[in-house]
Every structure is written in structure tokens, then in C-alpha cells.
Design goal:
Blueprint: H1 2-12, E1 18-22, H2 29-45, E2 49-53, H3 60-67, E3 75-81, H4 85-90, E4 101-115, H5 124-132, E5 138-142, H6 147-157, E6 167-171, H7 174-183, E7 188-192, H8 193-198, E8 204-208, E9 236-243, H9 249-263, H10 266-275, H11 285-302
Parallel strand pairs: 1-2, 1-3, 5-6
Antiparallel strand pairs: 3-9, 4-7, 4-8, 4-9
Helix pairs in contact: 2-9
Length: about 300
């Protein structure tokens, strides 16, 4: 009897609109991937999917709302490891990231520095010199305590990089950082490579913050190409989808299978190939849960979190 009830419950899911809560502004990499993947799920599975952007506090405003949702799997949210886990460990939040249930991981994505085209920044070395000369003062990224902010602080405080920005300008998403650079509000900022690709006609990519070639921008040198130290795991992140803590196993299974089907579809693979973006089904619920635990361990071992607390 119990098994029959479970089967009926699984067959009935989803019984309502699936709400995709995006804890960042529109136009950033998290937003772009989520809308593509879960929009494809909507088409392939003939289900209703709603997208809500809930930015603020480096993603923690949306994460807190997500953690409190009791939707049985009808609310999902994309987050990134280690990026979105860092502020959860720094800030005084009322949830534990390890209690979120993994659904699927879909991309590894690099960070890049972009510049305003009118500034005609030749490369990272030239950008460093122009900050040292006082021509540039502002540098943009996401909110304090985010992966973006930690990278910017390392670039300033580590003499191996010596990017002497004076004013860190925070935004609620990678897309907002890109728009600020494109408009000339700030000369440079850190964004995801998907944001840079989406805005490739509005910003210049100065460098990749990784130790390998950027498939979307193969002609852009990375920091290590220029002889700078590798930022390690901080130079990129893994994108994944999560469900709230109490989501039933059978609903996780449905979401995982739907995500895999969408990610591997010809439509989405064509979209990713055209943009030079990484998109693959990297693993399901267990993979994401392990990724979360590993990221938390790395963060606690390698970052002085107290330095970024108020």
C-alpha cells in the first residue's frame, strides 16, 4: 500500500508550477544558465516553470527565502560552488548549505576581468599599471564576502598581482557588473565568462582568472599565460541546481532526470557550442551533495573568513 502511494506521488509530480528562484540579478551567468536549462525542461516535459530573481546580500537574500520554502520540490534554485557557499559561511544566515538537496551540476565556469572598450586596455599588465598610476580607482564585482570580492581582494593585497584599486564597487550579479563596465560607471570588473560572452559587443575581456585557455575567448591570455600565480579553485566555479532540504527523494529523482534530459538536448548543446560555453550533465544529486561538502572543506581550510566579516 505504501509503495503504491509513493508511486502515485511520484507520478503526480510536478502538480504545480516549478518556481526557479535565482538569487542574483538578471543577465548574470547563474540567471542565463537557469533560464536555458529549466526553460528547456518546461518545453520537453510540458510543465510550467516560473523564474524569479531575488538578489541581495551576495545571493543570501534569495538563498534564505529558498531555504525557508516548503514546496516538495516545486521550488528549485541554482547556486555555484564554491562561490555561493562562501558568503553563507561568512554571513550570519539561518540555514546550512549542506542541508540543501543537490539536483544536478551542469557547468564549470571561469571568471574573467572585463574592461570598458573606450579605455582600450591592452592586457592585464597594462590594467595593473593604470591602477598604479592612479588613472583607474574603481573596480567592480559582486557583494562583499562573495567569491568575486575575495578574488578582488587577493588581486589587490597580494604583491604578485598588485592591482591597486581604491574603491570596490559591489553589485547584485555578474550581469550588473558587466553593465556597469559597459556604461563606463567603472573601468573594470570581474564577471563570469557567460556574462562576458553575452556582452561581448559591449565589453572587452582583459584576462581569464584561470590556468587554461578560455574556449569562449581563445585569444585572451589567462593570468598564468602572463606569468602570474594561479588563483586555484577560486578562479572558477561549478554551477548546480538545488532543492530545499525536505524535498522527497522521488521528486529529486524527477528533477535530476529532467535536468539531464534538458542539458543533453540538441537545442541546449547547440546553444552552448555557439557561445563557446561549457554545458554538460556533470552528475546528479549525489555528485552535487559531495561537491557542496568538498567546497565547504576547501573554503574553511584556505580562506580566512574572519577577514571578510564585518
Amino acid at each position: 500500500m505504501g509503495d503504491s502511494d509513493d508511486e502515485d506521488e511520484a507520478e503526480e509530480f510536478p502538480s504545480d508550477t516549478i518556481r526557479t528562484l535565482i538569487a542574483f540579478g538578471e543577465g548574470g551567468g547563474t540567471d542565463i544558465y537557469a533560464r536555458q536549462i529549466w526553460g528547456q525542461v518546461s518545453e520537453q516535459r510540458d510543465v510550467s516553470v516560473q523564474f524569479d530573481n531575488v538578489p541581495g546580500a551576495g545571493g543570501m537574500t534569495g538563498a534564505s527565502e529558498f531555504a525557508a520554502s516548503d514546496s516538495g520540490g516545486h521550488t528549485i534554485a541554482p547556486f555555484n560552488a564554491p562561490g555561493d557557499i562562501i558568503p553563507a559561511l561568512i554571513q550570519d544566515v539561518d540555514f546550512d548549505f549542506e542541508e540543501f538537496r543537490g539536483v544536478a551540476a551542469h557547468a564549470e565556469e571561469e571568471f574573467v576581468i572585463v574592461g570598458n572598450p573606450d579605455e582600450e586596455i591592452g592586457d592585464f599588465d597594462e590594467m595593473v599599471d593604470r591602477y598604479a598610476d592612479g588613472e583607474f580607482e574603481a573596480f567592480g564585482g559582486m557583494q562583499p564576502g562573495t567569491q568575486f570580492n575575495i578574488i578582488a581582494t587577493i588581486l589587490r593585497d597580494n604583491a604578485d598581482y598588485d592591482v591597486q584599486w581604491e574603491n570596490y564597487i559591489p553589485y547584485d550579479g555578474s550581469g550588473e557588473v558587466g553593465q556597469a563596465v559597459a556604461s563606463g560607471e567603472i573601468p573594470n570588473g570581474i564577471v563570469t565568462v557567460s556574462t562576458a560572452e553575452d556582452m561581448s559587443e559591449q565589453v572587452d575581456v582583459v584576462t581569464g582568472l584561470v590556468d587554461h585557455e578560455l574556449s569562449a575567448f581563445p585569444d585572451v591570455p589567462s593570468l598564468t599565460d602572463l606569468g602570474y600565480p594561479d588563483l586555484g579553485y577560486l578562479g572558477g566555479m561549478v554551477r548546480a541546481t538545488y532543492a530545499p532540504p525536505e524535498t522527497p527523494d522521488e521528486h529529486i529523482e524527477w528533477l535530476e532526470e529532467a535536468a539531464e534530459e534538458a542539458i543533453e538536448s540538441d537545442d541546449l548543446q547547440g546553444w552552448a557550442d555557439e557561445g563557446g560555453l561549457h554545458l554538460e550533465f556533470m552528475g546528479g544529486s549525489e555528485f552535487v551533495d559531495d561537491l557542496t561538502s568538498e567546497s565547504i572543506g576547501n573554503i574553511r581550510d584556505e580562506i580566512d573568513l574572519d577577514e571578510f566579516r564585518d
